[in-house]
Structure formats: C-alpha cells, structure tokens
Amino acid sequence: MKYTFFYIDPGTGSLLISLIGGAAMTFAYSLRKLLKQLYSIVAGRRYTSHSNLPGEIVFYSEGGKYWNVFNPVLKELNRLNRVAFYFTSDKNDPGLFSNYDAITSVYIGNMTQAFHVLNNMRCNLLVSTTPQLNILSWKRSKSVKHYSYIMHSPIDIHSYKYFAFDYFDSILCSSQQQMRDIRELENIRSMNNRILYNTGCTYYDESVAVNSGSREHVLIAPTWGERSFLPSHGVKIIHTLLSNNIKIKLRPHPQSWISDKETLAIVSNKFLDNPMFEFDNEKDVIKSLANSRAVICDINSGLVFDNILYHKRPVVAFDFGWKSIGYESYYLSKETSTKELLDKGGAIINEDNLSSIGEIIKDLDGFTLEDINPNEFVFNFQNAGNVAAQQILDISDKIS
Prior knowledge:
Layout: H1 10-43, E1 52-61, H2 67-79, E2 84-88, E3 103-107, H3 111-119, E4 122-128, E5 144-150, E6 170-173, H4 176-188, E7 195-198, E8 218-220, H5 230-243, E9 248-250, H6 256-259, H7 261-271, E10 277-279, H8 285-290, E11 294-298, H9 303-311, E12 315-318, H10 338-345, E13 346-349, H11 357-364, H12 384-399
C-alpha cells in the first residue's frame, strides 16, 4: 500500500491558518450585518453603522454606573415614542438589557474603541456625562451638530478637571450654583455663553430609600486618589471612632482597591479583627446609605447631597484642603454650596477637630433633616428625567 504525505512548512501553515481565520471572521461579520439588516426591515427601522446616524439623538455612557442618570431620560423618551441610541463602554451596562422599544442600546467597546466611534460620529445631537470633550482623546466630530453635557451629580463644578465643559454646546445643569460657576468660567476665559438648562439630578427620580436595618453603624465612604481623606487620615478616623465605641462600616470607592490598595491593606491588618469594624460589601449603594446612622465622606463628594437631601441622613464631610491646581476650583471665586448644605444637615471636620469626630457623630444623632427643602439645592427634585427628556427634544428639534 502506498501512502502520500503532504508537507507544509511552518510559515505556509501559519499563513493558511490566518487566511482561513480571516475568511471565517469576514463571513461571520457579513452574516451578522445581514441579520441586522433583515431585522431592521422587519422592525421597520433603517440599519445604519454605529457612527453614521444622521438626524438622530445619541447618548454615550462610560459604563453601567451612570445608567441611573440616563435611565429616567430614556424612559421618558421611550414613553413619547421618540427614537434614540444609547452607546456604552460597559458590556454589563443595565442599559443593554432594557426593553425600551424606541431606544437602541449598543456596546461600542472600551473607551479607547468608543472614542474612535464617537470621533467619527454623524448625528444630530450627542448627550454624555463624559467631560473634557476636545481636550484629551475624545474629539468633536464635524458631523455632530450639537454636543450636550448632562450633569451626573448635584455637586458644584469645583472638583472637575480644567476645561471640563468648555467645548460642549449646552449643559443640563443640576443646580443654580453650577450655572453660576459655569458663567464665571466663561467670563474668565472670554468664551461665548453655552446654553444652560435648569434640569436637575436625574438619578433622584429612580432612587428608592431603604430602611431595613437598625442604623447602628456609621458608614465611611471616601472617594479615591488625591481628593480622598482615606490615604492620609483614614486610619486615624477609624481608630478615633472605635475608641468612642462607634460601630463602623467602610465602603471604599471601587477604584481605591487599585489606587489605594496599600492603605486598605493597612486598614485590614489593624481593624478587621475588631467586631465593631467591617467592610461594606453591599452591592446596592442605596441600601448602604439608607441604613446607616450617619455618613462620613469627602467634602467634594456627591454623597453629601444624596444623604442630606434624599436619605435625610446627617453627613460629616472631611475637608483637608486638597490642592486645587488642575481643577476648576482654582479659577472660581465662590465656595461650594456643599458647605451651606452641611450647615443645615451635618458637620465639617478637618485636621484641627479630627480628634473630636466621635463627639461630633453623637451630636448629629439628634439632627432633624425633614425641614430641608431639596429644591433649594437642585432643580426639579425627583422629576428631572422628564424635564431633561423634553429639553433634549427641544435641542434636537431646533437644530434639525
């Protein structure tokens, strides 16, 4: 019996594998595109590429953590049967699994990949919570008629990086203080005025207060990096509270497990065996906030507003005088409204009175926050999503 053997050298074999793999990927992509086109015909919607959406409204989100900002707006647009596109850089974004008939949700890759799509975008209006348009990797596209920034927090703009909003055409603001400070920056930089809208904080529409616990603990919820008290003062704060027999839950910012991991390792080694201390692992931050006795956070954190205005919990905010170089606060003449709010619903600590934090927490137990009117600090409290949707439609209709 004769056998015939074929020999393929490694270089040729690699080339053949690449060709076969490339052909398979091309076939899969073509099939996927064809299926989308067929679906579009059945659904009655014209298929377009992700970056070619002339005349449409597009929303871009960095990830699922901002879904509670976009959802109230998209819900109202869907109720009005107004078509919009929701792009995200998070494969697990809840927006991808929403069942809104008028909203098309698409994962467009990580932020690097997403910016390639956005920088070549063609649409009527692009709405995002991502600041610093035209400063770093995200550039204005000549084929986008209007860029709008929607505030994702009620905090004043002091803690935003330089030029956060300079290249947007309009800004959906949460408060009068934000509008005031934006106008001041425009004057300093001799800029044309952007269109500013009295919108509000949309995620207040969605939040549901939870009160299933006994509220025996104080929640420590710092931000991360250079604006956080955790690396410089966290250990001392925890030690002082425990010395005052105050039960603690520490909820680090997700980024802290990367940027502040050395500090968290020290905290674990020193306090984890103490029955009065634990890390807060609750997935739902709303539950964590609502079930706490009081909250300790940084003075530039949106938690100050969330706890006092919505959850009606007192807040102790740490102000250690972080350097403002690189942030818009460097240019602004007025202090944040955070301090005004804390006068009504909390306290401010710094290095001078840090040793008294135990007594300060105990004094806050008697605070009554029900008389604080949220509309003094944010627009359209618990109705901002409907307002934002109408404002966005007005913008789109005017530029069509």
